[in-house]
Amino acid sequence: MEIELIPNLKQLHLAGVLNGLEGRVREAEAARWSYREFLARLVEDELERRGQNQLAARLTRATLNTSKTIERFDFNFNPTISRPQVLRLASLEFVRQKRNLLIYGQSGVGKSHLVQAFGNEACRVGLNVLFISTDKMLKYLAAGRADKSVERRLKLYLRPELLILDDFALKDLPPNGVEDLYEVISGRYELASIILTSNRAPEEWGEWLGNPLLASAMLDRLADKAESLAITGPSYRTKANS
């Protein structure tokens, strides 16, 4: 029977059942489970295994630091950060409503930790996430113009249910950067959420973008119904690394 069972499970893509099969057999014999209960437990085990594998795949695609979680964020270090607001944001209701979140403040105050924590939460509830620096995204899109793959590359940033752009307005824009950024933001508008972090306040973003017409259209879409979180205070990064 076992000789037939193993190849059959593999053919059905159920080889993971074998990992806990012997243990479940012993439990079934000891507790005198019915055949139906035994089968139900095996199915539950397989669903749990697949769920964990899917979560691991989502986290890998998201390029998140999995150690950056809400549980590991030290709210006591900076009492100006509203714990109730952060915990409410971690419920991801704004993502379900396809709204944006803008987090800004000086370097090192914990912005990147928080947005990655939100990203990790999103992955746990089954959402597709991508975390990337704004500069890296724009350079990748700029390179696509050289080999005419920019449309395909753009889809990488339109597809996720949550796009996290770190260090917005930090570095100079590459050639066509403002146009590419507009395509990302307008392409996601009212369809999927963006979280961004910036060392600059929102009123400085227009000057960084340079193009008044595109800047106005872009920032209107970015800020429409968005929630903002301004963080001030000492460097969280210095404390976390000490």
Q: What does this entry show, briefly?
A:
This protein has helices at residues 2-11, 17-31, 35-62, 83-90, 93-96, 111-124, 134-146, 150-158, 177-188, 205-209, 212-223, 236-240; strands at 101-105, 129-133, 162-168, 193-198, 227-231. It has 242 residues and is of the alpha/beta class.
What does this structure look like?
With 242 residues, the protein is an alpha/beta fold. The chain folds into 2 domains: 2-62, no CATH class; 75-240, Rossmann fold (3-Layer(aba) Sandwich). The chain is 56% helix and 12% strand. It is built from 12 helices and 5 strands. It has helices at residues 2-11, 17-31, 35-62, 83-90, 93-96, 111-124, 134-146, 150-158, 177-188, 205-209, 212-223, 236-240, and strands spanning 101-105, 129-133, 162-168, 193-198, 227-231. A 5-stranded parallel β-sheet has the order 2-3-4-1-5. It starts with a helix and ends with a helix. The mean pLDDT is 91.
Topology:
Layout: H1 2-11, H2 17-31, H3 35-62, H4 83-90, H5 93-96, E1 101-105, H6 111-124, E2 129-133, H7 134-146, H8 150-158, E3 162-168, H9 177-188, E4 193-198, H10 205-209, H11 212-223, E5 227-231, H12 236-240
Parallel strand pairs: 1-4, 1-5, 2-3, 3-4
Helix pairs in contact: 2-3, 3-6, 7-8, 9-11
Shape: elongated
Number of strands: 5
Helical segment count: 12
Structural class: alpha/beta
CATH architecture of the largest domain: 3-Layer(aba) Sandwich
What's the number of structural domains? 2
Just give the CATH class of the largest domain: Alpha Beta
Give start-end ranges of low-pLDDT stretches.
none
Strands side by side in the biggest sheet = 2-3-4-1-5
Helix content: 55-70%
* Assigned CATH superfamily of the largest domain: P-loop containing nucleotide triphosphate hydrolases
Largest sheet: 5 strands, parallel
CATH topology title of the largest domain? Rossmann fold
